[in-house]
From TrEMBL:
It is found in: Membrane. Keywords: Glycosyltransferase, Membrane, Transferase, Transmembrane, Transmembrane helix. InterPro entries: Glyco_trans_2-like, Glycosyltransferase_2, Nucleotide-diphossugar_trans. The chain crosses the membrane at residues 241-261, 273-298. It is a multi-pass membrane protein. Gene3D superfamilies: Spore Coat Polysaccharide Biosynthesis Protein SpsA, Chain A. Pfam families: Glycos_transf_2 (PF00535). This is Glycosyltransferase family 2 protein.
């Protein structure tokens, strides 16, 4: 890294966050200002709030504070594209104006104090990717904790490299983001893709806090869908498991055939409506499951070949100083 102070961009995806957004802006501005005063980041550093098609007043609040707070910029997407895509929109826009970018949720669950350590890892130790890892999850429910652990373990079994207890609180250098841009996948699961970039990485531990206000946008069904997306977009091992299951079942049925033929030859008529009906149902179930799984991958391929844009930017509000820098 150069000796000059790096310009830091902090990207915050926001969906229906009117209850917290003001507090988030205040807290992040405080952190950023302190970093500027300490000389850790340049004066051109900024916060970028991405409005992911909120249906409440989130965007109005962002636009309002953008007028009075010179650190704030706002990126308005044309509709709701989901957390991962909104995050990507922010990262790709912010990297054009920054040397490194930190992504953080709008709800202040990720301790903002860690930002300073992220920056130090970047500028002193030269880490191009720094993961924020939750030291404790005391504030998460027992249920969320156990399902999350199960998820990480399952991902690993399925051959996907993930960092335990790391969500999307991380720093990436401009260089790492430029590489991320080359991953052209439509089925985006950033947590699984970022480790593939390589480069020097670091970890910062922090405590996961309670949501400041508002409610989680990830209820259980959405969480499961997210986990499923993550696995199927990064690994084909589930399909291989299905193949192996098919192979196993074929062996079993071969044994059953031998048994049936042998008892026929020995003159015992095969009695067994129960076994028959059970195997019909069982095999039917397994086949439907396998077909569904394969369909899932076909659907993914379908989405990938269409190559639709992941997000559409409607408005970008930036402080004049930054716009100026862009023109020069
Ligand atoms: N979010 C978003 N688009 C969505 C859903 C969520 O941009 O469609 C944002 C949300 O505003 C928050 C972050 O993604 O900043 C994480 O969401 P949330 O806190 O609800 O998830 P949890 O922490 O409960 O997993
Ligand atoms: Mg949250």
């Amino acid at each position: 890294m150069s000796n000059e102070r790096p310009t830091l961009g902090i990207v915050v995806p926001c969906y229906n966050e009117e209850a917290v957004i003001r507090e988030t802006i205040t807290q992040l501005s405080g952190v950023l200002k302190a970093l500027m005063e300490e000389g850790l980041v340049s004066r051109a550093s900024f916060l970028m709030f991405v409005n992911d098609g909120s249906r409440d007043r989130t965007w109005e609040l962002i636009a309002e504070s953008q007028k009075s707070n010179p650190l704030v910029s706002g990126l308005k997407l044309s509709g709701n594209v989901g957390h991962q895509n909104a995050l990507l929109a922010g990262l790709m826009t912010a990297k054009e104006h920054a040397d490194c970018v930190i992504s953080i949720d709008a709800d202040l669950q990720d301790d903002v104090k860690a930002i300073r350590e992220f920056v130090i890892k970047y500028s002193v130790e030269g880490c191009e990717i720094v993961y924020g890892v939750r030291q404790s999850r005391k504030t998460d429910t027992f249920f969320k904790r156990t399902t999350a652990q199960g998820f990480y373990r399952f991902m690993e079994r399925m051959g996907v490299k993930v960092t335990y207890n790391h969500a999307d609180y991380r720093l990436m250098s401009k260089r790492a983001l430029n590489e991320l841009e080359r991953f052209k996948e439509v089925n985006l699961f950033l947590r699984g893709i970022v480790p593939m970039i390589g480069f020097k990485t670091g970890i910062v531990f922090y405590d996961r806090l309670d949501r400041f206000a508002g409610e989680s946008k990830y209820p259980l069904p959405k969480m499961l869908a997210f986990a499923f997306e993550g696995i199927t977009s990064l690994s084909v091992r589930p399909i291989r498991l299905v193949t192996m299951m098919g192979f196993g079942l074929s062996l079993v049925s071969l044994a059953a055939v031998i048994y049936a033929v042998a008892s026929k030859l020995l003159g015992n008529t095969v009695s067994g409506w129960t076994s028959l009906i059970l195997s019909v149902w069982f095999l039917g179930g397994v086949q439907l499951l396998s077909l569904g799984l394969i369909g899932e991958y076909v659907g993914k391929i379908y989405k990938e070949v269409k190559r639709r844009p992941l997000y559409i930017v409607e408005t970008l509000l930036m402080p004049d100083t930054l716009k100026q820098a862009e023109v020069e």
